[in-house]
Amino acid sequence: MNLILLRKPEPEPGGSGLVSILIPARNEAGTIAGTVRAALASTGTPVEVLVGDDHSTDDTAAIVSGLAAEDPRLRLVPVPSLPEGWTGKNAACAHLAAQAQGAHLLFIDADVTLAPEAAARLAAHAARTGADLVSAVPRQRMDSLGERLTVPMINFLLVSYLPVAAMRASLQPSLGAACGQLILAARAAYAATGGHAGIRTSLHDGMRLPRLFRAHGRRTDLVAGRDLARCHMYRGFREAWAGFSKNAHEGMATPRALPVWTLLLLLGQIVPWLLVAAGLSGLIAPAALVLAATALALSLATRAAITLAVREPWPTILLHPATVLVALAIQWNVLLRRERAGAASWKGRTYPVGRA
Questions:
Q1: Is the Cβ–Cβ distance between 331 and 261 less than 8 Å?
Q2: Which residues of the chain form beta strands (DSSP E)?
Q3: Which of 42, 161, 213, 230 has the highest CB neighbour count under 10 A?
């Protein structure tokens, strides 16, 4: 049902007004040129592209400056020193938003490649539905086994467990969901809610920003993102573990939430495999084996449908039990090893947990 409800946004003829594409960048020399060129290639609505150079020590600023000399719609915006009590991405995004001119602010990560009509589609969807914040999960690139054991849980959790119909029918903050890689916000609503300043201590804008909007009575939405953008968020298992651990501090890894999530995921996604193995070994009754096999088939069918719908690599379907176990291992590691996992590090900065 959620696969149907996560509809594909379409652009409006004539565009939806200026969209400001805002890209916080810290040491992104390897990806920033492709990201900027794709943003400048946007069609269907006028755009400006602002890249916030967050004290990069590589060639990020030089690359963007060179591209800006060729296209007046692009600006390099130096990000001020990180203020006390802020995390880096939120400070950069807030500074970029203050410099933007568009009626809509499209925040994208520096490793996100926009499709030509992405900005127009998101802005048009926001206008048609009255949503002040619209987000989507880009199509994820996964080159290594480590990435394929971790990244697919993003779409699996959102599509399987987010009650999309209830989200659209209610402004309950707990139903807010977004992907921090790709978030469009109405400029007026962003200013009224405080935007990234309202979540300045957060490390998980994908969760906290839509909840902030909803707490101020603003509607948010999540749409299908496979045709809107591509993203290569991590390179290998070590980087993926660190990245998902960072988000776990404000996600599932809480004493109240994680036991519930563990029970749901183990019972629905892992136990059927164990019962089928036991049944094939003659350890449980044939009737129980049939039930276990049915549960396993439903689990795999759900994962397969999501994988094909979001165009993730099909071999990740067979990795599903291991992916679930790795996800739970990341969450429990963060929860139980607070002394060693009691700070989140990213892009050369370390933040104490529990500030938000």
A1: yes
A2: 19-25, 47-53, 74-78, 104-108, 112-114, 133-136, 139-140, 182-186, 220-223, 229-231, 343-346, 349-352
A3: 213
Per-residue buried b or exposed e for 199-214, using 16+ beta carbons within 10 Å of the residue's own CB: bbebbbbbbbbbbbbb
Q: How far is CA 76 from the centre of its chain?
A: 24
Cα-based distances in Å from 39 to 19, 22, 296 = 11, 10, 42
Q: Helix/strand/coil (H, E, C) string of 225-258?
A: CCCCEEECCCCCHHHHHHHHHHHHCCCCCCCCHH
pLDDT digits (tens, 9 = 90+) for 201-256: 988 899 999 999 999 999 999 999 999 999 999 999 999 998 898 888 777 888 88
Strand partners, 113: 230
Instruction: Please give the model's pTM, rounded to 2 decimal places.
Output: 0.91
Q: Which candidate, 164, 162, 146, places its Cα nearest to that of 154?
A: 162
Q: Per DSSP, what are the bridge partners of residue 345?
A: 350
Rounded Cα gap, residues 91 and 100, in angstroms: 15
Cα 324 from Cα 262, distance rounded (Å): 9
Tell me the one-letter amino acid at 239: E
Contact 131, 125 (CB under 8 A): yes
| Cα 47 → chain centroid | 22
Pairing of strands 104-108, 182-186: antiparallel
The phi, psi pair for 184, rounded to 5°, reads -105, 130
Position 37 scores a pLDDT of: 98
Instruction: Kindly calculate the radius of gyration of the chain based on its CA atoms and give it in whole angstroms.
Output: 21
**Long-range Cβ contacts of 260-269 (<8 Å, 24+ apart):** 261/328, 261/331, 262/328, 262/331, 262/332, 264/161, 265/324, 265/327, 265/328, 266/324, 266/328, 268/295, 268/299, 269/299, 269/320, 269/321, 269/324
Q: Residues 121, 11: contact at Cβ < 8 Å?
A: yes
Of 246, 242, 235, 232, nearest to 146 by C-alpha is 235
